[in-house]
Amino acid sequence: MNLRNLWGRPSLARRLVLLAAVWSLLVLVVSGLVQTTLFHQASVMRFDDDLYADAQSLFAGSSVDDQGQVDAPPLTDPAATRAYSGTYWEIGEPAAGRLHALVRSRSLWDSELQEPPGGLAALAAAPGKMIYYTTVGPAHEPLRVGAMQATLPGRKVPVIFMTAEDLTPVEASSKRFALETAVSLMVLGVGLIMVVLIQVRVGLGPLYALQREVADVRTGKADRLDGDYPAEVEPLAAELNALVAHDQEVVERQRTHVGNLAHALKTPLSVMLAEAEQHPGPLAEVVSRQADAMRDHVDHHLRRARAAARSQAPRERTAVAPVLEELAHALERIFHDREVTIDWRCPDGLYFQGERQDLLEILGNVLENACKYSTRRVKAEATSVGIDRMNIVIEDDGPGLPSERRNEVFKRGERLDESEPGSGLGLSIVDELARAYGGGAVLSHSSMGGLRVSLDLPRAES
Amino acid sequence: MRILLAEDDPDLSRQLKQALSDADYAVDHAPDGEEAHFLGDTEPYDAVILDLGLPKIDGVSVLERWRRDGKSIPVLILTARGAWSEKVAGFDAGADDYLTKPFHTEELLARLRALLRRSAGHAAATLSCGGLRLDPRAARASVNGEPLRLTSLEYRLMHYLMMHQGRVISRTELVEHLYDQDFDRDSNTIEVFVGRVRKKIGPDRIETVRGLGYRLIPLEGEAESA
Predict the structure, then answer these.
(1) Over the stretch A369-416, which tens digit does the pLDDT of each residue have?
(2) pTM for this prediction
(3) Is residue A212 situated within a structural domain?
(4) With contacts defined as CB-CB under 8 Å, which chain B residues touch A271?
(5) How far is CA A33 from CA A39, A40, A175, in A?
(6) Do A86 and A185 belong together in one domain?
(7) Helix, strand and coil in chain A, % to nearest 5
(8) Which SS3 state, helix, strand or coil, does residue B123 take?
(9) Which domain holds residue A259?
């Protein structure tokens, strides 16, 4: 999965990863918030329980003297005796709708605890019940207060008991908890995304394998897809195989049609030529010339059709040495009278990326041309160039070709020496075929005296 | 000179027969592969003009049968199919020359003359060495009856080794025999050709004598009888 695929265009991997990432982010954030809130609530509840216990003991220990004065219990939490220690209590009474302190802890010094948010009415509405609220303490600390209205025996006016405690430690531990939760959830999130990445990579693995196999089919390393694919990909692989087979069939059928048509024309042309030769005259001359032209056209288009069909599907590979050997054997027989020797060299295991027929056609035409013009000797040498190219050089010891005429050779049907037998199409089809294979032919002067043809062709892995 | 013409197209057959008779050849005509094979098998022809697209048995099969039976009549192949893959298949089957349709009758006659001259030129006797046979007249070689496909440099090497079988032949001697004066003679050339010939006739037939050269060894017991 490269970056271009990930960001450049719609990508399955990106879609899957993004979806998973957004979903896990959402889940993680919500669960983090919920956990932190719950933790905070639980802490405050524990806190409130303590405040309640303190208020109860304050209530239980308080008494009323003869003048109706409230006496606080003699001993409370030692922290409540230190000024602004964060632990406070206060006993008061409602007076003209406001809270009037009767007794308070030493820690409060001369300040008072705030009334509950609902005012004294809220306390009066539910006597004996603790009301908790958060406010600001005398030292500007966050303060949790519990307040309860109760009636003491011997006193008509109800008394309000209040206990309070600094909330700072709870806030701090809540913050610490939130931080820890966030960090651990982030680690979890990163882990999840990594798992998703691996999952996508593994899950999409068969697609990457499919891509490699299709490439192999295209480059000729395989005839069809052979991999064992999961149920979701298998139908695609089967369709691709069917497409490849269909494609091959169509190409083959076209080739056969073109071939049949071309070859069917040849025997009648032979008959016309022979007939014309037997009855010399102006008509015979025209027939003969036109029949020759027709032959050249048929040959040319037959070869072109083959070249075009081939270049679309270079799936095969062909060993070069046997092709050179067969051609050398055939051509030495054809040019037996002139005792032409073809000295060919080719490393074992050199393969042409393409069809045997085409390599035969390319090399056959170049070698035939070389034999035709050579005095006695033709040399062919094949060498590999890099991992995917090869070079085949064919030279002869004939008269050669002046450099200014070399370009003309590749023109369609060009015949440089009209007296030589043969259609003269040989070298132009060579260049055309070599180009169809992404290569080419270069003509130059050979040290042996004649023409040097250097062919650049694709090489298959051995 | 007696020629067998195997061609199924009646017009072309008539024309060719006429042209060949005019050139003072005695011509027999076979319109299909079966008859061509039979005639070639039973009658002593000097050359055969064989169309590859014959009915009943195709030309290549007819030719292969003749060659397998050890017949070395010169054969000129006629065919509409001019692709090199088809030409090569024809020569593999044992053809001596090849003409693609359509052709000029003059060219056919010229090729036929060359073919007849070629086969008449060599009068040397067949060489043999334990299953290996070499016929200089037809420039053909076979191993245990199976025709061998040799290029001319390989053929020259085989020929020289068989002419001097049993004797150790130095590399220099082989190079001089294989190549003309002006050929560049790099030292590993001979090894390349010996290697190729070994692949075709079996690895043990040509023995490397270290420091001296090569020797063709007859198979035990067969040397005398062959």
Answers:
(1) 899 888 888 999 999 998 889 999 999 988 888 877 777 776 544 444
(2) 0.60
(3) no
(4) 9, 11-12, 15
(5) 10, 11, 12
(6) yes
(7) 55, 20, 25
(8) coil
(9) 217-315
Residues contacting residue B124 through CB under 8 Å, at least 6 positions apart: B136, B137
Whether the bond into A78 is cis, omega within 30 of 0: no
Judge: A337–B18 Cβ closer than 8 Å, yes or no: no
Contacts of A109 (CB under 8 A, 6+ apart): A83, A84, A138
Total residues belonging to chain A:
462
Q: Mark which of A203, A233, A256 sits at the end of a domain.
A: A203
Same domain, A367 and A308: no
> Which residue is associated with the tokens 């590999």?
A384
Within a domain: residue A209? no
Q: Which of the residues A269, A298, A343, A419 would you substitute to probe the B interface, choosing the one with the greatest number of B C-beta atoms within 10 Å? A: A343
Q: Is residue A197 part of a domain?
A: yes
State which of A315, A341, A372 marks the end of a domain.
A315
**Nearest 5°: CA angle at A164, between A160 and A168?**
160
> A223 and A134, same structural domain?
no
Pairing of strands B132-135, B127-129: antiparallel
pLDDT digits 0-9 by tens, A192-238: 889 988 988 888 888 888 999 888 887 767 778 888 888 888 898 99
pLDDT tens sequence across A95-144: 877 888 888 888 888 888 888 887 888 888 888 889 999 998 888 889 99
Distance between CA atoms of A199 and A21, rounded to whole angstroms? Answer: 13
Asked if A143 and A30 sit in the same domain, the reply is: yes
Does B180 reach chain A within 8 Å, measured CB to CB?
yes
Distance CA B216, CA B162 (A): 7
A240 in a domain, yes or no?
yes
Q: Do A330 and B80 touch (CB under 8 A)?
A: no
Q: Does residue B134 belong to the interface with chain A, where contact is any CB pair within 8 Å? A: no
Cα(B37)–Cα(A83) distance, integer angstroms: 132
Beta bridge partners of B169: B214
Is residue A427 located within the same domain as residue A400? yes
Domains of chain B from N-terminus onward: 2-121 (3.40.50.2300), 127-225 (1.10.10.10)
Assign A115 to helix, strand or coil: coil
Cβ-nearest to B107 among A295, A325, A421: A421
Q: Are residues A174 and A44 in the same domain?
A: yes
Backbone CA torsion sign across A55, A56, A58, A59: positive
CA atoms A431, A435, A439, A440: torsion sign: positive
The CATH number that applies at residue A440 is 3.30.565.10
Burial of A369 (0-12, 13-18, 19+ CB in 10 A): buried
Nearest alpha-carbon partner for A393 in A314, A326, A456: A456
Higher pLDDT, A7 or A327: A327
CB contact, 8 Å: B186 with chain A?
A: no
Provide the 3-class DSSP secondary structure of residue A338.
helix
Q: Are residues A153 and A88 in the same domain?
A: yes
What ipTM score was computed for the predicted complex, to two decimals? Answer: 0.78
Same domain, A83 and A128: yes
Among candidates B83, B90, B97 on the partner chain, residue whose Cβ is nearest the Cβ of A361: B83
Across the interface, whether the CB atoms of A306 and B83 are under 8 A apart is answered yes
Domain count, chain A: 3
Q: Pick from B101, B107, B151: which is nearest to A332 by CB?
A: B151
